[in-house]
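Justification of computing resources. Each target in the renewal requires a structure prediction run like the one illustrated here; the chain below, 251 residues long, is used simply to show the kind of job we budget for.
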Amino acid sequence: MTMRAHWTIAAAVASILGMSAGQASAACSFGGSAEPSLQATFDTMLGADTVNVQTDCIAEGADAIWNTVGQIGTVEIEIELAGNASSNTFGIYDFVTGNRIRIFEGNDGANTLGVVQVSQTGSGQWRARVRDFNVSVADGETGTGYGAWSNLSSSAFGFYLGTATNGIFYSETGRNTDGVDHMYAYGPLGGDFQGDHLIAWEDLINGQDRDYQDLVVKLQDIVPVPVPLPTAFWLLGSGMIGLAGVARRRG
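Resulting structure tokens:
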């Protein structure tokens, strides 16, 4: 095998393995909207100049998959300015199977608190269940109990925003039918939000106004994680590395 072929295989392996880390993106971009901007919202929440919504967002791909710190994490609606707020839903999904677990419904407004619990059974099966208190946090945690357990492929999950007219949007951009990144993420934060993350959503197909303040959710004890790769992927990578080794010996 020629030296050129050897380097071609090596480059292909590097390309495949590089996919697992996600690629850094340019600064997050926004369009125009008659509603308050995401920057103005963050300035009010966190203090002026604490977070720059364009340059401080987590790189595209690195914000796709998440897990809880320990077994329990909380999610809290900070703002919801969408005209579709009364019908939008929000929750987590299994990034392998796509199965969804709803946390918030259309009648949930700002300060509504939800809890995500992830655990592993004695047989090793990962599972998750959620609790939506469906009341203002200030009113006390007196809402409904946990829903039923749902199986997960691993301890990791993604977030989704469901809309009545535009379909479902996911934290994994590749799952979105329009190919648009509908969720920007920020954190870990400091100050009163120490260690927390904020995720900001655009609920219109093709991005349209790109204001990303249709739903803003605070995550506590929930953090982004590298995308776990299926076994077949690693077998492919190892096979190509083996081919590269053969090429080196024969070159």
